[in-house]
Amino acid sequence: PLGRYTILVESAGMEGWQAELALQAGQIAEVSPALSVGPSTQTVTVPGDVAPLVTTTSGTLGNVLERERVDELPLNGRSFTSLMNMTIPGLEGNNSGFQGFVYGIRYGVEIQMDGALMQDRYVGQTFARPPGLDSINEMQATTNAASAKVNLPGLVTLSTRAGGNQIHGSLFETARNNGVGLARARTDYYTKPPHVVRNEFGGSIGGPVRIPKIYNGKNKTFFFFNYEARRLMQSSTSQIAVPTAAMRAGNFAGLVDSTGHANTIYDPYSSGAAPTYTRTPFPNQQIPVTEESALAKFLYQQTPLPTLASVNPLAGYNWYGLSPSNTREYTYTMRFDHHFTDRDQVFVRYTRGNQGTAATNDNADGSPRTLDGYGNVQAAVQHNYTGVISYTHTFSPTFFSETLLNGMYDFIGNLAAGTGNYDQQLGLPDPVGNPGTGWPFIYNVGNTSASWMDYWGWPASRDVSRVATLDENLIKVKGRHELLFGGRFHEESLDYFGGSQYPAGYATFDSMSTALLDPSSGSSYSALPYTGNNTANLFLGVPGTLASQFWRNDYKLKGGERTLYFQDNIKVNARLTLNAGLRWEYFQPIQVADGGIVGWDQKTMAAVLGTSLTDMIRAGYANPAVVSGLEAQGMVFETAQQLGLPSSLVHNYWKNFGPRLGAAYRLTGGNHPLVVRGGASLYAYPEPERTNLTEYEYCLPQVGLLDRKSVG
After folding, report:
1. Of 4, 93, 99, 146, which sits with the fewest C-beta atoms within 10 Å of its C-beta?
2. What predicted TM-score, i.e. pTM, was given to this entire model?
3. Closest by alpha carbon to 375, among 326, 430, 434, 437?
4. Mind listing the pLDDT tens digit for each residue in 538-561?
5. How far apart are CA 62 and CA 210, in angstroms?
6. Distance CA 14, CA 17 (A)
7. CA angle 276-278-280, nearest 5°?
8. Which of 32, 31, 22, 30 has the alpha carbon at shortest distance from 1?
9. DSSP string covering 178-224, please?
């Protein structure tokens, strides 16, 4: 276990030698006692830390970020990913989430906290609400030439803080708001800056476990608790052109664009025959109110009126307002340590994080949220749980074991705003029967010469990651050899739903239905200049495109890993250490429940199914109408069994061997040595499960997969 140690060396006829050692996370510390002839009753105490600041016995490249730097380094926000990006060369990421790149190697970093995975299995990103900084004792990073104990090219290990014999605690609060130090943007035409209130607060406490008159845990049982939270309520100014009150009543008189040209709208139901396609303009540019579509009537009830009534919406923005974006998050960590004996130590740690956001969609035209609060809004939530049980046992002064049992649960969801089936309420088609909630996507409802308000829903999605891991690590020191060996049993799953756009359908209103068609355009059907208006098309309810995409049920993905490793660190002499190891790994191919995966047989030009087509339809993985359409075009379906493939479409592979070699040579002595190090390693590891699924769909060389949406 990391922490401060007192080392005492005694031998008959020699003076005793005593020193202090601060053992860091993941460190192999080399200590060189020096005994002098003299009475054994005397002890020479060496001041300061006797471990060299530079690792002298390993070719591995890495960094340790101790508690003092966690406390003192300046940060904007309280995320350990910021510390990683700032202090550890080679790691690539951003403050909102680290996605596992080291020296350009894709998904090449695993981030653990006391051995528990801190990344989702969706795309391998760190949790949106990571553990609090006050819960982290040290952070150790391996970025090159790792030992056989490490499964990826890079490893970041966070160690949580533990309580001690004295009660210690902390409290903090950081506040910011728009009252001080916040300037207005150019688009803020009013005098007060947009609303901003940001609060970060929390605290921690640790010490011995004491139950009055029952139990005193001094020197034996300790606790630590940390809680941190953040509230960010802010708005930004949006600007857009929205229909005037007159337009909402069907009055399109005076439509003049920014160049001074008037636009004329025509009655689409007066169209003549080819090739002239003559149409009659609406009298006085007034569409009868009786012609207003149910869709337009509903949307205009939810669309804010202009804030600048004097501005022509074809020439400029006539609505300015605030688009809010709110975030609430918190995290807490609890840890209990118990020393059964000097040889047996156990700790249990549990951490929970939660983040929820609700924000106006940041799309191209900055459309504000609708008045009912459901359109043009993204609502997302992520909550995660991790837990660890660690047992450290000392068999002898030269033989140690560490047993780690840990688990992780992570939920990420984009929640469709609203509870109604808007496609049915608005009369939009739903030929595949999606159980969609939330707003549809409605585009091009304004004139193309200005940015007019569109209406966006947000596709519902969710993914649930579950990971359970059992690690056994043993260390045996024998002569000049330090032997590391052990293994891992790892199970993981991902329930993934989403990725389908337009869950409630979509419609566009660039239909030219109120324009005068140009006879010379032929089959391209272009409109004559200065005719027609998309808002008028919406008023009549005549779209250019109507579409709906099939949603399949959740992908229920499952994978696993079995690992054995052996490493020998050989102290050749006082200056040279060699590191040699071998890691064997078996990765279970990603399985999909009920065989709900689709591939492509390049030889027979047939779609390959993990199960029968009947079962695919029954499980909601395929749609009969889509399948019938494909079969009508000549599509042939085969099962994996017909091709001799497992239901996962991928054969097992049992020969993943990863050799690890390294060396460290100490050129100078003392506590500030000059060391030359180097190494070479071979790695095999799975990418995140959603990434695996996507690559199966598009890139698998033996069984290239179709886009799931094209086959249901």
Report:
1. 4
2. 0.85
3. 437
4. 999 999 888 877 777 788 888 899
5. 39
6. 9
7. 175
8. 22
9. TTSS-PPPTT--SSSPPPEEEEEEEEEEEEE-EETTTEE-TTTEEEE
